[in-house]
């Protein structure tokens, strides 16, 4: 929107129709307080017609505007009137945020407060119609519990501002391990449900919550309701036996009871437990058994809550490889974990007039999949949004695991939101807007720097997947020493040099640059740790025990610094965090370091296990030795 005629804030009236509900009232309040923050003028909010002045009218059309899609909106500007209309109340709120952004307000990072510029006069916007390319725009947050209630409240506000419209969460997610992530919507729903409601956001209760809808306590009386392994034995820790009539009846009853008690839930997921232990009984081995059971749940839910969407997760082969003649129900949506199966599910859903397909995403804000080291993925996010739109899917829901890495997460999510609304946007446009607002004095050069940060060297910890000894990693000989290492170092130095130059000339607060610096240094430090690890591997090859030790002591120093940075993420710059995931992979690394120090080979290696407590004292031990040793 270009700047047009000037608008005196003292003349503004915010008006909504008498039928306006919760969301329109909140939209009016957001607009009123935004204008007050920018101009110091408290504009009146009223119902119905007003005389004189310029009215900003908010109106929900309930589907009457056939040119509007989903929660899109139309801003119509005439002489003395700005009319914001949408088919859904949430669309009206989107229109209000669009208007605030037109006036220069931005909220890039959820850990911060929104930024309002100061104006004496506002300018009249131009008329426009905005429809989102992707209908569903949401996140699945970890952790969700009472401890993080206030963080979550702020994040929901930020999501609404950035025109996300869905929160996926679990009523009670079984922790994978003792100190794993906790997702317990029921701990916070009293306080946070109103936050979703006033923004008209969709509550999607799903994720792995099978233990809530199918408690393991059933096992005592009904072991036959639980999955059988290959040897014919049933376990309370396995999945449900989806072909057992009693089990399915119980599941139907529990889902139905929950849906009746929770009218606020718009999408209800029926995910199996996380990826393991499907039943090997004769009937369950037939492909499509899980879908058939979920279809029966959907049939029952359709009777009590016809508008409720039943979400089916296509994830493992048991839930993805379904024969063509077994179709979902028309009140179901398919959530795909893998894009390979999206097209087939879309066809099946369309064949029954169903509620379509949307996708999970593991590489936008998922610190578990990304080993607590999220990359900035502006171009990939754009490609994924375009692919999602081209495939006729409803949207992308990323896992948002580890909210303390807020600097990286906010950036990736900002891009996801912008591209979900408009896949014809470019990275350059979105990044330019970000840099013009965040770093106005050096905007163009910061944009160039961010494009380089997207390609910053990052240690990939996901290969080789089976974690043999370091000595077996071919990359230890090539990637972290010699010419490749020199090139990587050169890249880090170049980034730091550019950043230092910009910080010297920029007029923005230093804390805006601090996360950028920490992001570069975090990657550099991790590479340093791996460089010395690679040198230790080379020393191992020469059978030089002392050199192995001194190299690993250097590795330990860097690992210690990184660990401290991650562990102390609270109040930090949002770059390092997700300690739960970081520690998990650190533990693996240390198990391998310890074996390298002990000069173990494939002959006498110890298999790497999850959270091996034996390495707890390994780092401090190495560092202590380094301090005590006169050689250093
Ligand atoms: Zn079975």
What is the spatial order of strands in the main beta sheet? Answer: 9-10-11-12-13-14-15-16
C-alpha-based Rg, rounded:
27 Å
Shape: flat
Oligomer: single chain
Instruction: Tell me the total number of β-strands.
Output: 16
Number of helices: 19
Account of the protein in words:
- The protein is of the alpha/beta class.
- Among the domains are: about 5-130, Chitobiase/beta-hexosaminidase domain 2-like (Chitobiase, domain 2, 2-Layer Sandwich), CATH 3.30.379; about 205-335, no CATH class; about 455-630.
- Helices cover about 45% and strands about 15% of the residues.
- It is built from 19 helices and 16 strands.
- The protein has helices at about 20-40, 90-100, 150-160, 185-195, 210-215, 245-260, 290-305, 315-320, 340-350, 380-390, 405-420, 425-440, 445-455, 475-480, 480-505, 515-540, 545-565, 580-595, 620-630; strands at about 5, 10-15, 45, 55-60, 75-80, 80-85, 120-125, 130, 135-140, 165-170, 200-205, 265-270, 310-315, 330-335, 355-365, 395-400.
- The strands form three sheets. Strands 9-10-11-12-13-14-15-16 form an eight-stranded parallel β-barrel, surrounded by five helices. A six-stranded mixed sheet has the order 3-2-4-6-5-8, covered by helices on one side. A two-stranded antiparallel ribbon has the order 1-7.
- Helix 17 runs antiparallel to helix 18 (about 580-595).
- The longest helix is centred in the last third of the chain and has 28 residues, at about 515-540.
- About 40% of the residues are buried.
- The structure holds zinc ion.
